[in-house]
Amino acid sequence: MTTEKSNWREQELSLQEVIDKYPDVSPFVILKTDVQRRGVDFTQRAVDAVDPDRDAVLYRGIYTEKQDRIPNGLILRDGTTIIADRIKDQSPEYNGGRDPYLIDIVEGKAVLTDEGKVVEEISYWPKPDYFDRFTSSGTPMWQVLVARPQRMDINFYQNCDFWKLPGQGCKFCVIAATYHSTEKSEILNFQDIAEAVAEALKQKGRFRMIQLCSGSLLGGDELLDDEVNKYLELLKLLAKNFRHEKVMTQLIGTAYNERQLRRLYDETILTGYTADIEVLDEDIFNWICPGKAKYIGYEGWKERLYKAAEIFGPGAVNTGIVSGVELAAPNGFRTEEEALEKGLAEAEVLAQHGVGIAQTIYRVVPGSYFHKQKAASLDYLTAFAKGLDTIQRKYRLEAYFDDYRTCGNHPNTDLARI
What we know:
The two termini are 35 Å apart. The chain is built from 14 helices and 16 strands. Helix 7 (225-238) packs parallel to helix 8 (258-267) and helix 8 (258-267) runs parallel beside helix 11 (298-312). The chain is α/β, with parallel strands linked by helices.
């Protein structure tokens, strides 16, 4: 599934050709998609220009660990945001030989470049006020509370139980390798999290939402009770910051049963729920996500999403997909045409039950089982984003938990604002 580094550009439509092919799709969203599938690197000039007093440069999440001056994310001129994953592996076989975009400084401005040509001007995510402060236990707040431009992200469990079971981790994921490469705690201190959230809320107008997302905890009296109980505990602690029964909050967790879902909705401030199915095909899901397939199953995952939509309401429930991983060799779809047709058909089935799709672009991650695979073509990923947006408009599914202001990681929900 690899190509020679010298000819990958000849085998795919270029960025401009894709922009020309899809005139009704924002060119900024198409660029974002390409940056996400290829990644970025930085010239030394660009690194030196990063201002740690102004730009958000420290990031600790369940998938990423970096403590250098590389920014958390990028902002395009129209407000489109991009999570900036730095690519250091320049080997010819990496990601099918595709080069990452290069961030440089030209005429005093930060820009995305490709083959030495300026593609677009960028800026970096602004640093929130709380980042350099400490909790009462002495923990740096940036270590327990991650920030996007308008969202707080809480990742309390920084490992995943599927990866603790031999052969059960999702093949595209690097969560276990990331966790074991650092000295961070497996489960964060909830009091530290609560103090960081309280401090973040002091910055008026900065944040509009809180998101909670962690690896799966499989234990308990019933499967996933430990995970649900942890979220219940944390959400009740966070509720002390608010006077309302419900607050703009989203939980990205495992697929819970009806009892667990009702507890989360009835007992907490939670308003949105997502359980990532990752792949919109049962056979490929079983291969790529063996742990999820064994413990819940593809159809079981969908039924739990449908029940969630009944409880939380249509438009308040999503499922995430890793767009492009369904083409992985040797058991994925053979062609992008087949993947597009079958994937969008399955997305419509979900939408008919009130479940939206959040499209995350697959990019090869060193350290994952799929580290020798490659991302899909920009043409395919753009067509998929457009198709998903069309479906969600048809069924009147809102994207307010994953729109361009709140999340900024999903091309298809970025299109909801247009």
